Amino acid sequence: MLEQYQISAPILHNQQLHGDYYQLDITAPAIARAAQPGQFIHVQLPAMPDHVLRRPFSIYDVNPTDGRLSIIYKVVGKGTEHISVLKPGTKLDILGPLGRGFSPLPGDIPSVIAAGGYGCAATFLLAKRARVLPTVLLGGRSAGDILLQDAYESLGCQVLVATDDGSAGAKGLVTELLERVLYEAPNSWIAACGPTPMLKAVGMIAESRKLNAEISLDRVMCCGMGACFACVIKRKANTPEKWAYARACSDGPVFKANDIWWD
Amino acid sequence: MADLSINFAGIAMRNPVVTASGAFGYAKEYSNVVPLNRLGAVTVKGVSPFPSHGNPVPRTTEVYGGMLNAIGLQNPGIDKFISDENYLPYLRQVPCPVFVNIWGKTIEHYAEVAARLEAEKKGIAALEINISCPNIKEGGIAFGTDLKLAAAVVKAVRDVTTLPLITKLSPNVTHIGDFARSVVDAGSDAISLINTLPSMAIDIETRSFRIANRIAGLSGPGLKPVAVRMVFQAREAVTVPILGMGGIYSAADAIEFLMAGANAVAIGTAIFSNPGCLVEIIDGIDAWLDRHGIANVNNIVGVMHQAQA
Ligand SMILES: Cc1cc2nc3c(=O)[nH]c(=O)nc-3n(C[C@H](O)[C@H](O)[C@H](O)COP(=O)(O)OP(=O)(O)OC[C@H]3O[C@@H](n4cnc5c(N)ncnc54)[C@H](O)[C@@H]3O)c2cc1C
Ligand SMILES: Cc1cc2nc3c(=O)[nH]c(=O)nc-3n(C[C@H](O)[C@H](O)[C@H](O)COP(=O)(O)O)c2cc1C
Ligand code: FES
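ok -> structure tokens follow
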């Protein structure tokens, strides 16, 4: 059985990285110890009745020894705005670790992580726990959307950057970097997290090259526990339609790219 | 420590707090964070004779005072429900009574699921007949808003099962008491109310519906006063046990329903906000009764009907 907890976690730090991006560190020992790469926490917003639903965030980093757990979040709406002004010491009610994360990166073939925007938070523990370091590709709209480059580099990973406007790294898409890396290392294992169109493109690349790719899909969530069927995604299945809905929160958020039924 | 135990349509429950259908999956999903042996009962997600994909996404959105959902009754179908280890076999080990919520697109569908469950009834305490879902194109609310159809569904189910029947009424009617009487006359042992209210939300920037199905059910705190009123009116109409629900977030909310005439209460949306609320509500009812020197929870059921003199 999965280990999952609901705990009241005090905030240690809550600081702006740059622009709309923030890092939140909390103390959540049981969750920090159980967390696997690609899993997420579900955070309650204190003010009722404006917010009846929790907000999901990927677990970025953990320290099992002191119980610290970190997330990276972008302020996009009322919930994340609310979180951004919370002070150290404030307690957050969180559920976690939730969902199925990434498989460990293989030790015998090269691997590559492709991340768009805050997607790089979901893949960090995967790189940190890798036996053979992955190449890391970070993509975003512009320089301000490139996060955690230093963190990945300090693990020893080679990091390549692409932005839509060319303000950091190569001008273009992270999937173009992926094609380049796969040209050099054609048998790579792929792990990816980011906006759905990017993940679909990663899936297509993997399929055409017969490579293993795992992707973490972002869906609007409600319970986060697999109970309500709000967060579903079409997965290939043995049904007349050839697909069935799977729950992103409990069957995922990480899926084999090949298993997804893209409309 | 007040006595919280109740007898609900012949079902012995350790307390009156139940999970609402659709908010607690099939119990297993929440079993890591909710001690199932504390609950009065669990109600599972609606089961139909056939597997159902449900509606396209987005299926839920937050609104002021609650949320909208149009899941569309996604479920594995009765065959898989009975045989797959995640459903009925798991539910048989759950340490509290299990209510199985059922639905169909035709009267025959309701009878079919009920008959299948009658044959497998070990571990099932009652059937909750959902005649009130706003989110499916056929059936659902149509049965719940037509007195004759509502009674016909209940009678068809009554004919094929000896399990206690709880009929879940639609709030989308003018005279709830008429519906309560109609389903009880047709053989329902208890009633539950209310289901979600048909609603809509629009994103004005993108000019799109926030829910793919366009129409979706409102649940959560905003629903509570409507639900309390309807429980009160249903209690005036029938004497059978009532499972009251709609926006219950706290022990105080639950007690309001009990005073209005509910014998037990179900919690839905609040579980999404805080799975721990179930135990908090049970303990909170206990503490409230102690504070008021009331020894037995049954003593507050329906008190608002006497208080009117
Ligand atoms: C498994 C998972 C992991 C996630 N990890 C992270 C993370 O590490 N860092 C991070 O910043 N965000 C992450 N998200 C997205 C995050 O949950 C949403 O940005 C957040 O819920 C928005 O809340 P809000 O109240 O600020 O926005 P709202 O006011 O609810 O909405 C504002 C805008 O954000 C959009 N939005 C709402 N929910 C989501 C969602 N789930 N995904 C994308 N857009 C959404 C809405 O469509 C709307 O346009 C993750 C989501 C999932 C499902
Ligand atoms: C996501 C969701 C799914 C639901 N699914 C069902 C269902 O399958 N069958 C049913 O009878 N009611 C269903 N309901 C209605 C609830 O059981 C309950 O009647 C309603 O939500 C009001 O209670 P609440 O405000 O505590 O959530 C659902 C509600 C929600 C929010
Ligand atoms: S959010 Fe409820 S099932 Fe995924």
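The interface with chain B takes residues 1-6, 44, 48-54, 93, 95, 219-220, 222-223, 225-233, 239, 241, 244-245, 250 of chain A (CB under 8 Å).
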